[in-house]
Amino acid sequence: MTVGDVARFFVVEGYLWDWLTAGACIAVNLVIPGEVVKPLKRYYEATDSTLAYPYHESTVPSLALYLLVFVLPAVVFAVIALIKRSAGFVDCSRSSPPQTTGFKRWVNLVGCLRPSWLTVLKLNDPSEADEARLSYPSGHSAYMFFSMTVVSLYLVGKLELLHRPSQLLFLKAVLVVAPLALATFVAVSRIADYKHNPADVNAGCYIGMACGAFAYFLNYPSLFDPTSGLPKRRGAAAERAAAAHRAAAAATAANQLGMDKAVDEELQAIYSPAPNGIGARARRGG
Fold first, then answer.
1. Separation of alpha carbons 120 and 285, rounded Å
2. What's this model's pTM, rounded to 2 decimal places?
3. How many CA atoms lie within 13 A of 47 on its CB side?
4. How far, in Å, CA of 252 to CA of 255, rounded?
5. Where would I find the Phosphatidic acid phosphatase type 2/haloperoxidase domain in this sequence (predicted)?
6. For residue 124, what is the DSSP state?
7. For residues 204 and 279, what is the distance between their CA atoms, to the nearest angstrom?
8. Which of 65, 156, 222, 237 shows its CA 20 to 30 Å from the CA of 53?
């Protein structure tokens, strides 16, 4: 496949426009909420013990989070492509970041304070104080769960877990659940580090899972479908597939009609009355 073929594929099938739209959405969601529109400065009391938890460094820092969210899925997709000997295009990884970023960034404007808010103020670090106003929802939880939800659903489809049981069924199930377990660890670490309340983390998990599932099923069929491991076709490819499906259905119907006609003729030959009242097959000694 030449560079020109790849370019035509992206344009004709619509992936180029999807990626441009996703990039524009991410840019808008990163600039407007937080930069142009500031989070609400909520009322609080200096004696509020729920805001006086000690400051704790993140168990999963931002760099590690980005590696888990973007690099780990890319590695999984590449390994599956090598095993399946297929260079399938994982377009659902493009759909979920703008959705999750949008939900998370705009909801952050509510300005909920982190459990360590009062301690952070004593650090005299403006950047830390700004971050401490973004407790709800948890960004780590949202980003991890959108990414790992896509990976888990992708593995379910590629491993044919739900429509083709095998002797390694439980092992496949463990592999499928592992990304979600990793996301859960990252989410729980935010509570342990006094970065978020449990409700903040739960909200981030729900946002991430919803966006990840929506992005996956926007690009892949049902997990119970025999073709669950193959992306939905678009543009000319979708039209060709639909035409092939209609042709196959017409051929099947024609074959069925021919079989029905042959059966009718056979039954007519067996049971049609002869002049003496005996069936044709009976006349032949059948």
1. 102
2. 0.74
3. 0
4. 5
5. 84-216
6. T
7. 77
8. 65
